[in-house]
Fold this protein.
Amino acid sequence: MFLCISTTFWWYSSLVSSIFYSVSYWEQNLKMCRQDPKYPNLLPNRHDMRL
């Protein structure tokens, strides 16, 4: 029972953190793309750092 609760909590926390990360990433991308209208928002911007 406890294991199940902790696993669910871990799953929710990872989900929330990934959502926050993607939201901040897309906000950065949208800001960059506003300066460069030729690029659609879904494509990686040329100013992005390549990992």
Observations:
- The longest helix spans residues 2-35.
- Residues 2 and 8 are 10 Å apart (CA to CA).
- Helices lie at 2-35.
